């Protein structure tokens, strides 16, 4: 359901697009509004009529009938009112739901470049607060149209059934009323928009200090965090104050009350002159009084609408910020005879938007990994090892050069298939706050329990899970905080194994595992790794030494390539990896 | 069923009675009593004007019905009507202004209180609560609850108004007035009984907003995993459940909260019709004048408006209380980590640490991480802890940092129980590099300075150089001003570790704890850091946890942990001589790790730490 934002050029169109999807409901709401409004306006007329024909003439013959009619009108108005309201809310909530799903799905398919910039607190606020406000706008939007109906109807009735002169008196007031509304609308706009921004800021600051709770505590930085949060809250508060100030100033009921007062004064005079009946006076009065509620609503609805559009614009911006990952490909299916030859050809890559401006992380990167080889990628911290893997997974697109798998550009493979066939055990392990078995099954949700257990066994997960009272149903907590560092890594290894990938990439995946467990895992892997191309990023020398090929990186360039013995002789950078004091002569003796 | 829903559903700590909720709500409101009084007053004035208006209409009509009408009287009535209308408007405007004078502040206080309470919590609280749901409480629940405070202000004013109006009705026609009044208890009873329903549906709704937030956090934070496994569709599908649930609960809530207005208006209409009928009878009997009945009709509507507001007070407050409950859940949850009431102000600790018979379990479910754990770390000692994953190394550190409360025994530093020290002063003596690195979004410099913002440029660079991060900072485009991104996502894993290492060093702590501080850093950099640390660690007590044994060879003492127990201890050499678990680990490690692996020698000869 993710959105093709290219087809929609502005947030207003985006909003309309969603509304049009529900045209039937929109129509229902409109019909409902018209009928409710008509009924609402009829009531004062009926009461005026009753007063004129029965109470004043003291002729009670028709009273019961008339009252029965009145009651029917009342009851049907209330029923219609409720139904219209519920349909309106249904429309609002449905749209909200659709938009939220669309938002979520679109985010899922945004490239990582987008997520690097996005702030989680912001996205949370967009998914709850902003969408709620859009919902309010739509479901109360009905009330925005309906006061207009009512004002118009009231005016017509005044002219047609009651008295033209009263209508004339009302006219300037109505103009003033509209002026007031427009003014109000203009002034409230910045505050209405500020509401979401300041709300977002509160969520962002809060999210940061909740996620970093342990750091805040260990550095006793509670005061600092409090101050940051307080600033955000004050921002929200001040916006709120500004909003209410505008509301107080442009309260449009002013005009209405004046209208009511003035018409009454005039009616009195007309009755005095015997040119108006008392019933008409009452009716006119009641008619204008019925406008109080709608005016009240219009007052709130304007606010809702301005915030609603601001929310739409925020969401639209967020949705359209980066294009979605390119999904189409030449190859429709994953080739059967895939072997796993990886080639990087002159790849240059930099993070950030305007790629060329930033210093490239990888420069003219070229290498080949033959099928079923095990290749170690080594190099100092920050040299671009992880980045290279992200390119292979097409989490980012290189600015220059191509990456080939079995001689075919990876952009020609179907994206999701490509990623599913490359198993990547990431450096910073992320686990979902679900059970251990659900985490292992993440890459293959339909895996059987036996398969999960088998993989857990291989990755030495079973080792520690046995000690848990709930075993595989233990919930691991947000990000897996309830597991130790090494336990998390093992769950992640099991998760990758379960998908049975053609290419396996281990990014420092045993750094938090003791050497004994590591050995067990390595043994277990021997079988898994067979007939697979494996890329290993590691600082553990044993693994490096026994690889078929070693690629040495430094500052985004490949500085050496070859097997252990050759490199040891020829590459200073490679020797550096083995520590500081390693000098060549000593080595020659030892190896 | 979607995974999000079942597992994320939060358990309520305890149930709150209406009474308790109300009284605590009232306590929150007290500081704003001036505003509330003013708002009530404004409502009172404006509605009184509203009450006088029909009287004027009645007067006017009566006068107009007379054969010889008095013009000035009629005009007078009209003018008063006009003036009253203006008063009503002014009052409305003033009321709005006053609302602006208290609502935002009320909300500010509420949010700060929740935040402060969150700051008091220890880590076991954050293990239990997902950040999205906590976030929702502070942002959404607090907001919606704040909005209900207007209710209270409105209620007071409307209460007086209805009494006043009733007085007028009574004066106009006692019989009809009493008949009208007969409907009121019924209204209230109805609304009162609806409040439970309101609470229930509102509770579900609030929970589902929290779930939406959780779903967002999970999916966005885990986006890279999700993409690497090509599971976007599955995750979306799961979120769809959460989203649907949100729709369902929200719709139910709307259906319930909108129904009472319709019910109330219908009842009002019925009463109105009855009154008109009876009024007609009275007029025909000649016991009442037309004008009076007319006024009565106008009044009934005015009488019922405040009554309606009053009646909806219960269910609406009840709905708001569902938000308050969730907030109270946080406000009332006492942190497990408790300090004693008599606290020592610790200034500078020496650093002798003694664990005595410590019992500890994370979940308090009898699954002990430590049982009767004993350890003594001398002042200035450099202690290394090794052991299998899950042995409890990080847990030990967590206890020392007071992230979790232990169940039995004691931990003493310089002879003072850590539970007797002022927490903030105590923690200032600790410096930690945690296994899970967390950086705040901001620049590298802000992150390093996090523990000591006023550190001099010189100290800053000293810390940076000690962890050999100067090279990396020079390498980065914006140097110290590089934005690290949320959680430090814009840096490599090793870079993050170095930054967090520098951050800990900058605070110049008495006790330094390094939990796998250089596990993602290359061996060369690690070796350089190692040298720098020799100097840095000399004056402090330090605890070093590492799987890479090369980093701990120079430790004064090494302890080997297994399943929460110390199974061996001694210096590197003596442990090798012992040939136990450590010997095994070391052998394995060196088989893996070293090029120049030598058979373990029994002599005390120093083994090069390459
Ligand atoms: N999302 C990002 N946005 C901007 N810059 C980034 C991002 N991720 C990494 N970098 C930068 O790119 C460079 C290479 O990072 P990378 O993660 O590839 O290093 P690495 O070789 O994996 O290092 P390590 O051994 O520490 O894991 C670093 O200088 C880092 O600061
Ligand atoms: N927050 C938590 N809630 C519940 N259990 C936990 C929590 N943190 C750790 N545990 C459990 O306590 C045990 C000890 O974990 P700890 O993190 O202390 O291990 P460790 O020795 O640091 O291991 P590693 O070398 O892998 O980091 C593990 O079995 C782990 O699952
Ligand atoms: Mg990396
Ligand atoms: Mg640990």
Can you describe this structure?
The complex is a heterodimer of chains A (591) and B (610). In chain A, the strands form two sheets. A six-stranded mixed sheet of chain A has the order 6-7-8-3-9-10, sandwiched between helices. A four-stranded antiparallel sheet of chain A has the order 2-1-4-5, covered by helices on one side. Chain A has helices spanning 11-21, 23-55, 63-109, 112-117, 120-162, 164-211, 213-218, 222-249, 253-272, 278-289, 292-320, 385-392, 415-421, 436-440, 449-458, 461-465, 485-498, 515-529, 541-545, 564-570, 572-577, 584-590; strands at residues 342-349, 362-369, 374-378, 400-405, 408-409, 422-425, 503-507, 533-537, 549-554, 557-562. Chain A has three domains: 9-319, Up-down Bundle (ABC transporter transmembrane region fold); 338-421 and 504-513 and 535-591, P-loop containing nucleotide triphosphate hydrolases (Rossmann fold, 3-Layer(aba) Sandwich); 425-500, P-loop containing nucleotide triphosphate hydrolases (Rossmann fold, 3-Layer(aba) Sandwich), CATH 3.40.50. Chain A is an alpha/beta fold and 591 residues long. In chain A, helix 5 (120-162) runs antiparallel to helix 6. Chain B is α/β, with parallel strands linked by helices and 610 residues long. Chain B has three domains: 15-172 and 312-335, ABC transporter transmembrane region fold (Up-down Bundle), CATH 1.20.1560.10; 174-287; 353-429 and 509-593, 3-Layer(aba) Sandwich (Rossmann fold). Helices cover 63% and strands 9% of the residues of chain B. In chain B, the strands form two sheets. Chain B has a six-stranded mixed sheet with strand order 6-7-8-3-9-10, sandwiched between helices. Chain B has a four-stranded antiparallel sheet with strand order 2-1-4-5, with no helix packed on it. The two termini of chain B are 54 Å apart. Mean pLDDT of chain B is 80; it is low at 1-10 and 597-610. The structure holds adenosine-5'-triphosphate (2 copies) and magnesium ion (2 copies). One magnesium ion binds at residues 393-394, 435, 515 of chain B. One magnesium ion binds next to helix 12 of chain A.
């Amino acid at each position: 359901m993710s959105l093709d934002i290219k087809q929609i050029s502005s947030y207003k169109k985006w909003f309309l697009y969603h509304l049009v999807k529900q045209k039937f409901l929109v129509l229902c709401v409109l019909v409902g509004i018209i009928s409710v409004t008509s009924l609402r306006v009829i009531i004062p007329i009926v009461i005026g009529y009753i007063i004129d024909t029965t109470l004043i003439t003291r002729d009670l013959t028709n009273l019961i009938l008339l009252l029965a009619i009145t009651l029917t009108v009342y009851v049907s108005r209330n029923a219609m009112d409720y139904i219209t309201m519920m349909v309106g809310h249904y429309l609002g909530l449905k749209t909200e739901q659709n938009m939220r799903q669309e938002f979520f799905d679109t985010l899922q398919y945004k490239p990582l470049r987008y997520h690097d910039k996005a702030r989680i607190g912001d996205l949370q606020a967009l998914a709850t607060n902003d969408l709620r406000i859009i919902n309010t706008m739509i479901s109360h939007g009905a009330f925005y149209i309906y006061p207009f109906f009512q004002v118009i109807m009231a005016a017509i009735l005044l002219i047609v059934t009651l008295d033209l002169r009263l209508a004339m008196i009302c006219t300037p007031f109505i103009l003033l009323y509209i002026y007031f509304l427009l003014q109000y609308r203009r002034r409230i706009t910045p505050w209405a928009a500020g509401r979401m921004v300041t709300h977002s800021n509160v969520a962002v600051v809060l999210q940061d200090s909740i996620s970093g709770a342990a750091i805040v505590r260990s550095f006793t930085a509670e005061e600092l965090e409090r101050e940051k949060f307080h600033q955000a809250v004050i921002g929200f508060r001040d916006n709120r104050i500004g909003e209410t100030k505008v509301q107080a100033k442009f309260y449009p009921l002013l005009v209405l009350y004046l209208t009511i007062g003035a018409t009454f004064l005039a009616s009195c005079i007309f009755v005095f002159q015997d040119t108006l009946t008392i019933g008409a006076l009452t009716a006119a009065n009641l008619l204008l009084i019925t406008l109080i509620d709608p005016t009240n609503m219009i007052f709130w609805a304007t606010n809702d609408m301005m915030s609603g559009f601001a929310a739409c614009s925020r969401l639209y911006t967020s949705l359209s910020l980066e294009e979605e990952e390119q999904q189409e490909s030449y190859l429709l299916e994953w080739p059967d005879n895939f072997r796993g030859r990886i080639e990087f050809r002159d790849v240059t890559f930099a993070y950030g938007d305007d790629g060329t401006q930033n210093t490239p992380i990888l420069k003219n990167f070229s290498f080949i990994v033959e099928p079923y080889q095990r290749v170690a990628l080594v190099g100092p911290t920050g040299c671009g090892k992880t980045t290279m893997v992200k390119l292979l997974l097409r989490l980012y697109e290189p600015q220059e050069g191509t990456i080939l798998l079995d001689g075919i550009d990876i952009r020609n493979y179907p994206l999701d298939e490509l990623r599913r066939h490359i198993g990547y055990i990431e450096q910073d392990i992320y686990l979902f706050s679900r059970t251990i078995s659900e985490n292992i099954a993440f890459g293959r949700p339909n895996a059987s329990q036996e398969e999960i257990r088998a993989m857990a066994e291989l990755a030495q997960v079973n080792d520690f899970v046995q000690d848990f009272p709930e075993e595989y149903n233990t919930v691991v907590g947000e990000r897996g905080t309830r597991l130790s560092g090494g336990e998390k890594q093992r769950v992640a290894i099991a998760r990758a194994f379960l998908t049975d990938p053609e290419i396996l990439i281990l990014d420092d995946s045993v750094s938090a595992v003791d050497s004994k467990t590591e050995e067990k895992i390595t043994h277990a892997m021997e079988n898994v790794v067979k007939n697979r191309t494996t890329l290993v990023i590691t600082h553990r020398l044993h693994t490096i030494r026994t690889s078929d090929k070693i690629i040495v990186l430094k500052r985004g360039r490949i500085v050496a390539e070859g097997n252990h013995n050759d490199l040891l002789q020829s590459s200073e950078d490679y020797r550096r990896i083995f520590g500081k004091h390693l000098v060549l002569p000593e080595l020659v003796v030892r190896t | 069923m979607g995974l999000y829903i079942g597992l994320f559903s939060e358990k309520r700590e305890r149930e709150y009675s209406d009474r308790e909720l109300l009284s605590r709500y009232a306590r929150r409101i007290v500081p704003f009593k001036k505003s509330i009084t003013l708002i009530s007053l404004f409502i009172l004035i404006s509605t009184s004007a509203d009450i006088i208006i029909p009287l004027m209409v009645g007067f006017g009509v009566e006068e107009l019905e007379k054969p010889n009408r008095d013009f000035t009287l009629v005009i007078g009535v009209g003018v008063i009507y006009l003036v009253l209308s203006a008063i009503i408007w002014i009052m409305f405007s003033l009321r709005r202004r006053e609302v602006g004078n208290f609502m935002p502040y009320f909300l500010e206080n509420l949010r700060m209180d929740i935040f402060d309470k969150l700051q008091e919590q220890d880590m076991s609280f954050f293990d239990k609560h997902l950040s999205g749901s906590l976030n929702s409480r502070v942002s959404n629940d607090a907001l919606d609850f704040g909005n209900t405070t207007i209710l209270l202000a409105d209620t007071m004013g409307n209460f007086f108004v209805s009494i006043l109006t009733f007085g007028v009705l009574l004066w106009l026609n006692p019989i009809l007035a009493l008949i009208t009044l007969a409907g009121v208890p019924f209204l209230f009873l109805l609304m009162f009984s609806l409040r439970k329903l309101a609470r229930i549906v509102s509770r579900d709704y609030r929970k589902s907003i929290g779930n939406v937030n959780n779903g967002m956090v999970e999916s966005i934070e885990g986006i890279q995993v999700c993409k690497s496994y090509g599971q976007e569709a599955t995750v979306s599908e799961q979120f769809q459940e959460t989203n649907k649930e949100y729709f369902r609960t929200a719709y139910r809530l709307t259906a319930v909260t909108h129904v009472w207005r319709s019910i109330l208006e219908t009842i009002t209409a019925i009463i109105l019709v009855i009154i008109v009928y009876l009024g007609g009878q009275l007029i025909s009997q000649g016991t009442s004048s037309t004008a009076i009945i007319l006024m009565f009709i106008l009044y009934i509507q005015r009488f019922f408006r405040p009554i309606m507001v009053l009646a909806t007070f219960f269910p609406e407050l009840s709905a708001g209380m569902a938000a308050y409950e969730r907030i109270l859940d946080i406000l009332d949850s006492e942190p497990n980590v408790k300090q004693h009431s008599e606290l020592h102000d610790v200034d500078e600790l020496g650093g002798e640490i003694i664990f005595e018979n410590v019992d500890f379990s994370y979940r308090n479910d009898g699954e002990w991480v430590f049982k009767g754990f004993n350890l003594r770390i001398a002042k200035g000692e450099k202690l290394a802890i090794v052991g299998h994953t899950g042995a409890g190394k990080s847990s030990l550190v967590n206890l020392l940092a007071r992230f979790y409360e232990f169940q039995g025994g004691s931990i003493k530093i310089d002879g003072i129980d850590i539970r007797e020290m002022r927490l903030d002063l105590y923690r200032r003596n600790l410096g930690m590099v945690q296994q899970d690195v967390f950086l705040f979004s901001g620049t590298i410099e802000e992150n390093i300075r996090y523990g000591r913002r006023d550190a001099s440029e010189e100290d800053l660079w000293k810390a940076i150089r000690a962890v050999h991060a100067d090279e990396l900072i020079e390498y980065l485009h914006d140097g110290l001003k590089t934005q690290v991104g949320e959680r430090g996502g814009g840096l490599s894993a090793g870079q993050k570790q170095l930054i967090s290492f520098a951050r800990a060093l900058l605070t110049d702590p008495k006790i330094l704890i390094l939990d796998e501080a250089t596990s993602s850093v290359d061996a060369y950099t690690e070796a350089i850091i190692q040298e720098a640390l020799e100097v840095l660690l000399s004056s402090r007590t330090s605890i070093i946890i590492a799987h890479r044994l090369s980093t701990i060879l120079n430790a004064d003492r090494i302890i080997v942990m297994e399943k929460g127990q110390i199974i061996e201890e001694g210096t590197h050499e003596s442990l090798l001589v012992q040939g136990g678990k450590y010997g095994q680990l070391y052998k394995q490690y060196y088989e893996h790790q070293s090029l120049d692996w030598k058979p373990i020698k029994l002599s005390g000869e120093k083994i090069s730490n390459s």
